[in-house]
């Protein structure tokens, strides 16, 4: 809470105490990983039966670490099975560490891990099934975007903020997601958002607030400039990604690849200009029509711009974000946003390539992607 008070003081022009240098650090070493796996162990025969032997009709998608299949257990429960690709370099020890790490995350706005399977050469994670797919499918597809009116979108923004706050502050481990984006937000039957895909995540311990890496991973368009350019990441780099998400949810357009009359090549720049000119409502997706709550929409855009400010110390924490979303008080003026969209020739959803060797403490929760 002290950190939040200091941010508010700085934002409104009052006293601000700088970040103590001894709180900064490089990426910490992973734990020993000797803890017992505290999740149900599924037999391979059960998984094969539930997915109809990994039928193509059951395939939901495929990520960098392997395919995801829909399954139905004997009791009728629907599941999503992430099958680690045979070519993956992840070994048994790393896989077990992954299961341990994911199993400790329990929040209604995170995809729930139900169990795992290790048998022969097969390594799989079993998740709750998300019937409404991922958020990008609904907001970027013109034929689907009308399914999400403004109240539904605002509900999703609040849910993502709560899930991210849990990762940063309320979970046993302080976790930096590092790849927060619309395709990693899954939606349940009631359109509740669930953060997924922790493949790039890192854990912080003690008073650590920042770290750096030689291997920059994530998705261009969502990456904070200090991370994309210098490999420095913190909870504030996740806050930046959240700000991009908010603007995309309001606008219905992708940040990266956005082109407005040849003036801007990203949504952030366009939003910043409209905000400064008092024309923020022009950012709102036309499909939202009369469903919008104008003060709520304008406040969301303003908060999104606060989250994408160039200087990480200027960005609010997720505690402050939720406070601002839930109140009607005045907001500080946002400073200039940070722009980093990567190589424009790359696909907007492509993850960045490695810029060096990975450090030993990468929390490889790569398969929390249960679509």
How would you sum up this structure, described in words?
- InterPro entries: Kinase-like_dom_sf (IPR011009), Prot_kinase_dom (IPR000719), S-locus_recpt_kinase_C (IPR021820), Ser-Thr/Tyr_kinase_cat_dom (IPR001245), Ser/Thr_kinase_AS (IPR008271).
- Its EC number is 2.7.11.1.
- It comes from Helianthus annuus.
- With 371 residues, the protein is of the alpha+beta class.
- It folds into two domains: 44-128, Phosphorylase Kinase, domain 1; 132-325, Transferase(Phosphotransferase), domain 1.
- It is 30% helix and 16% strand.
- The protein contains ten helices and 13 strands.
- It has helices at 2-11, 44-50, 92-103, 135-139, 150-170, 225-230, 235-251, 267-276, 294-307, 318-325, and strands spanning 59-63, 66-72, 78-83, 113-119, 122-128, 174-176, 185-187, 193-195, 202-204, 210-212, 232-234, 256-260, 264-266.
- The strands form five sheets. Strands 1-2-3-5-4 form a five-stranded antiparallel sheet, sandwiched between helices. Strands 6-9 form a two-stranded antiparallel ribbon. It has a two-stranded antiparallel sheet with strand order 7-8.
- A hairpin with a 2-residue loop joins β1 and β2.
- α5 runs antiparallel to α10 and α7 runs antiparallel to α9 (294-307).
- The radius of gyration is 20 Å and the shape is globular.
- Residues 13-35 and 341-371 have low confidence and may be disordered.
């Amino acid at each position: 809470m002290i950190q939040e008070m200091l941010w508010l003081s700085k934002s409104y022009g009052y006293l601000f105490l700088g970040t103590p240098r001894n709180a900064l650090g490089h990426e910490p070493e992973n734990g020993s990983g000797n803890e017992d796996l505290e999740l149900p162990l599924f037999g391979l025969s059960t998984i094969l039966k539930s997915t109809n032997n990994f039928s193509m009709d059951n395939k939901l998608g495929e990520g960098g670490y392997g395919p995801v299949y829909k399954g139905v257990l004997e009791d009728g429960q629907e599941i999503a099975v992430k099958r680690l690709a045979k070519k993956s370099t992840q070994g048994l020890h790393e896989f077990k560490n992954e299961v341990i790490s994911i199993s400790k995350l329990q929040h209604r706005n995170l995809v729930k891990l139900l169990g795992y399977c290790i048998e022969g050469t097969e390594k799989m994670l079993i998740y709750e099934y998300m019937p409404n797919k991922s958020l990008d499918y609904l907001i970027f597809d013109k034929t689907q975007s009308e399914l999400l009116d403004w109240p539904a979108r605002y509900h999703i923004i609040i849910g993502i903020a709560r899930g991210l706050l849990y990762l940063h502050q309320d979970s046993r481990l302080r976790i930096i997601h590092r790849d927060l984006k619309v395709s990693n937000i899954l939606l349940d039957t009631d359109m509740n958002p669930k953060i997924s895909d922790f493949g790039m995540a890192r854990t912080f311990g003690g008073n650590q607030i920042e770290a750096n890496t030689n291997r920059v991973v994530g998705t261009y368009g969502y990456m904070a400039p200090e991370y994309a350019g210098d490999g420095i990441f913190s909870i504030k780099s996740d806050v930046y990604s959240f700000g991009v998400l908010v603007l995309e949810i309001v606008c219905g357009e992708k940040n990266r690849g956005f082109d407005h009359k040849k003036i801007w090549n990203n949504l952030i720049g366009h939003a910043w200009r409209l905000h400064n000119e008092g024309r923020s409502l022009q950012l709102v997706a036309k499909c939202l029509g009369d469903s919008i709550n104008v003060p709520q929409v304008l406040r969301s855009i303003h908060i999104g711009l606060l989250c994408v400010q160039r200087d990480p110390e200027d960005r609010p924490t997720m505690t402050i974000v939720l406070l601002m979303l839930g109140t009607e008080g005045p907001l500080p003026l946002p400073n200039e946003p940070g722009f980093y969209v990567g190589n424009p020739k790359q696909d907007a959803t492509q993850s960045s390539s490695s810029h060096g060797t990975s450090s030993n403490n990468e929390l490889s929760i790569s398969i929390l992607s249960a679509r």
